[in-house]
Every structure is written in structure tokens, then in C-alpha cells.
Amino acid sequence: MTEKSENTPNFITQVTELLAEHHRSLDDMCHMKFADEPLPQQALVREMVELCRAVIFPGFFGTGDINSDNLDDILNKNCVRLHEILVNQITAGLTFTSPCSCSGLAEIRRKANEIACRFMTELPLLKDTLHTDVEAIFNGDPAAAHMQEVIYCYPAVKAISAHRIAHFLHSAGVPVIPRMISEMAHSETGIDIHPGAKIGHHFAIDHGTGVVIGETTVIGHNVKLYQGVTLGARSFPTDENGKPIKGIPRHPIIGNNVIIYSNATILGRITIGDNAVIGGNVWVTHDVPQGGRILQAKTQ
Asked: The pTM is what?
């Protein structure tokens, strides 16, 4: 029974009691802490992504007061803070869907610290990969004056950097946090990349608005997508209860050196071969061979 103060109207008490009923909350609709575990926090996850960008692209993200004298100190300070947030939010993700006791929380924090340390050691490699993405975007856009403009202004850099961060955490088995990262980037850029998608180096998205890349998509190296491209699934196999079966491969495999033009829709577990070109506004549900070209039929 909800405690009722002398000034609480009866209808408020009744509403509160109804909201607290477990059969109404269905458990999944009410998240309660079981120990001293942290909770996923939008602000901390956002800060984590910004710190990653700040150490990968110093001076473009984070503080703008970077010079040769203070670079090492600022990078060190940002890395310390980044590691702290990673441990906290990875712990939050690991405990979010799997409640733990106080005694189990220490082990989960240890595991979170291991993942965070692995992530930190991967940052130089992540930096190298993102630099190839910036290079690919710059080389593929004659309107870009220089690579600094691409880093500072282009939404694809934010979307792809967010994805590469989220994909590492997703691959490490961290729940919730990777999806928070991808949805933040989606809201900011209009580019929707599921954390599970595997993407090679020199990946370019031009303009980007409306791009959707599904969970089990595999993209090779030196691939370029234009706005409105969908790499999606055709259908969802269901189990005996009629619910979608999770995690099975259902999105396209895109080979190396592929270009996919605006508003193309590629659906299902099909393969687009190396060096293929997919024209704009086409619907593709079958394999495309190496070097193939899929274009709209001309009106007679």
C-alpha cells in the first residue's frame, strides 16, 4: 500500500497504486536497481563518445586550445576520464539486463575494467581506421576543400566514429550502451548504423541522411554509400511462439570497392560482389556478381 500524506488527494493515491502494480508494469517496463550498480546515463555515454573523438581528432573535438606544448597532457587527461566513464558505463550495461547481488558486482566491475582497458589499447588502431574513413570521404567529394573540413563539418565522420566505438563494445558483449551510442548518432546525423554491422576501412558516406545499415550487415573495404541507402532485411523468421528469431544473418554482404547510389534498397542475406555499382532508386533482393552494375531500366 502506498503511503499517503494528509495532503495527497485520493485519486493520486489510486493512480500511484495502479502504476506500481507489477502486472501492469510487466517487469520490463520498470527497471529497479538490485545492488549499488550504476545505471546507463545518456550524459555519460555522450561524454564518452566525445572524449573518444577528442583523443582521435585532437583540436577538432573537445578543447580547441591544443598546441605542441600541451598535447600530451590533454590527451592523458582525456584518456584518464575516458577510462573512468568506460568502466562505469560498461558496468551499467552488464548489469542492466542481468541483476546482480552486491557480492557479484565486484566481479562485474572487474570484467568491465578488462573491456575498458582493451578498448583503450585499441584506440590507436581505431584512430588509424577512422583516418582512412576521413580520407575516403575527402577523396570522394569534390566539394570538400581539405580533410580538416571533413573532420570538422561532415556528419558521416560523427556517425562512422560513433559506430566504430559502438561496434567494439557490442563485439565485447556489452548490452545497451552500444545501442545508446548508435541512436545518439542517428538522432544527430540521420544516419542509422546498428552496432553489430561489420564495416571495413576506407568507408565513406556522402550526405548520409536516411542511410540505414542493419545489424548483421557486412561491408568490405573502400565502400561508398550515398544518402537514403538501406541495407536491410527482407523478412523475419519466427519461432514456435511467433516471435522473431534474434541474431541470425539477414542483411546484405557488401564486397570491396562497391558504390551504392542514393535511395537504393538492398534487402536480405545477399552478396554484392567486389567492384559492383548499384544505381539510385533501385530495389535489389538477389546477388550481384563481381563488377556487376544494377541500374534503373530506361523508360521506353
From this structure: 0.90
